Amino acid sequence: MYRDKANGSRIPEMFVWLVFHNLVVACLNLRKLDYPGPYVHCDIKPQNVLLYQSENQKSYRAYPSSILGDFGLYYRLDYEPITGDAGTEGHLAPEQYGPYPQSPVRVDIFQIGLLIWCMMRNVVNGLRDPPPGHQPFDPHAYGEWKKQFDNFDVGHGYSIGTYSRPLEALVQSCLEEDVRWRPDIGTLYESVKKGMDKCQARNGGLKSMTVDNLPEWEKVEYKKDEFIIGQPFTGRKHRPGQDDVGEDNNEPPTHDDVAVDLEILKGDV
């Protein structure tokens, strides 16, 4: 995560838009899959988004590309209702708390919005841990969700204006407690694409820049903790706390397609 003296910990807005865009595209593609799909991903969180730097990127080469992973928890959109709170505490949508059954039609919309909100607010665990000075909220009580988001802004001293109004408004629309007020995936895609293009235009051609000529305040720094895309990697631990796989944990990666966890952006996220 990039840190500047004026705003404390701040991830550049262009990169936030790019992650937003790629998550929406991933979920849109899941909904286009044939039987037994379409699918709705129901465990979208920073730990399940990988950052991938590739020489084959045609645009925004100064930034790592983001990839949605971990498809172990999902709903089959056409015939599988929500019947329990499968997912990760702190990153669940309101309807995942019941009463059951519920439609999963916009669970991914909420979770995408929550992940982007986490990036903007420098929050790791979503709504799992209460902000300073506040008690945990009751996810079953209607109206408590918006209050909890407001509490985080107050508790962490978030300054409105750190990010643009269009980005803030679009994220808030995804975080509506009532699923009927959230955008559908197609509308969200168009809105994110429009916002991303406007952000790029405001910032002097970031789309064509490389990391070498990117302004310091626009750079995204992250720790190197590799995950291999598309094949098992036996050279080191996959995640902290897991058993070692292979004989040499210090062995460097030998595959070109390497990604890192979004959670380990430098900073607190």
From TrEMBL:
Annotated signal sequence range: 1-26
Claim: Metal-binding is one of the keywords in the record: no
Enzyme class name: transferase
Enzyme Commission number(s): 2.7.11.1
Origin species: Lophiotrema nucula
Lineage: Eukaryota, Fungi, Dikarya, Ascomycota, Pezizomycotina
Superkingdom: Eukaryota
Pfam families from the UniProt entry: Pkinase (PF00069)
InterPro entries in alphabetical order: Kinase-like_dom_sf, NEK_Ser/Thr_kinase, Prot_kinase_dom, Ser/Thr_kinase_AS
Region: Disordered, residue numbers: 232-262
Protein kinase domain location: 1-196
Record carries keyword Translocase: no
Protein name, UniProt field: non-specific serine/threonine protein kinase
Gene3D superfamilies, sorted: Transferase(Phosphotransferase) domain 1
Stretches with biased composition (Basic and acidic residues): 253-262
Keywords: ATP-binding, Kinase, Nucleotide-binding, Signal, Transferase
Gene Ontology MF annotations: ATP binding; protein serine/threonine kinase activity
